[in-house]
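Hello, quick one for you while I still have it in my head. Could you read through the record and tell me how the tokens relate to the sequence? No rush at all, and the record is pasted right below.
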Amino acid sequence: MHYDLTTLPNGLRIITQQMPSVRSVAIGCWVDAGSRDEEPIEAGASHFLEHLLFKGSDRLPARFISEAFDAVGARNNAFTSKEYTCYWARLRSADLPLAVDVLGEMLQRPAFRQAEIDSERHVVLEEINMNEDDPTDVAHEQFVAALWEDHPLAPPILGTRDSINTMTRETIHDYWHRRYTPKTTVVAAVGDLDHDSLVALVTEHMGEWQGPALERTSLTPAIGPRVKVRRRDTEQSHIVFGTDGLSRGDDRRFAMSVANHVLGGGMSSRLFREIREDRGLAYAVQAFRMPFLDTGAAAVYVGTTPSQTFEVLKLVRTELDKMMADGITPDELARAKGNIKGGLALSLEDTNGRMTQLGRQELTGVEHLSVDDVVARIEALTQQDIVEAARVVYAGPYVLGLVGPFEESEFAELVQ
């Protein structure tokens, strides 16, 4: 995959890829700051800060950012994860100087006006309320809390009502000052652009930015069989069942992508057929992976009637055991390879998809691979590669996050 990369004297990295067939650019500022980097008093600060940076700087009024992007028909937003935050915009290539100017102001000189902090605090609290009202989200949070317990990945990205209510301007400012530096930031852009011209723009608007480099400590979590239940009298129980998985740089991640697809990655997957198609026990069932710096997760989500919960969980365990014992068939291997290759090609058809891949990989240190490189690695996988990876990941110990009318003690035997 061809890309151009320049590192400014202050440590800020600029990585670009041209797509000559389009007339737009997707640009993202990727900051190495996520919920895992927060001290207890800062719980939720990464996400709160993401909101506050849209409130402008001393030079830019609070409404300027939204009005400036709206005036040129741009699409812009931001998101926070456990390991990074991204601020992005997609707009005409002629309007790229506007995006660099605004994003540079947001990152370097946020105003942190007290009235806006107090107003946005209520918005974040409403987001927490919305999350709490979605039992699927709650089940995933229960799973993560049970899986990683005392590890920095365990706390919720949004923080808690208590942490957001008590967070002061000084706490937010200090977190921003510590985590937002040029050495922890990547500017990624894809589309109708010239690399050297973008470097000149970024140098003009961010070249004087200063701050130290920060390294994130890699910690191995202590995993044990655990169950966390949020007791609710719901029409459905929401199940997230799984174990720790591979870190994002593990070479076996390609084999696990295949295993994950065969297990529960599509309508032809084993779990979809067994639980939904053959038995009618659920509408939604899927397997997923979450890779991070020092660990990962491999899990299955199912929503089902409470009375069917034990049956569904036993079926999930059975399918995991089958894959570890017998591996996958040649037909399953071929379908999974085809699905992954097709999904990869589709995801990189637009500027935003490519920018996301480019920026995230550069920030996290994952090697930049072309589509052909990834396809070659997928094609090289054998049935033995898949079963060996599955035996490493799916062997447990297991963890269960659950929302429904249950007690934790009812499920202890299923995670052993």
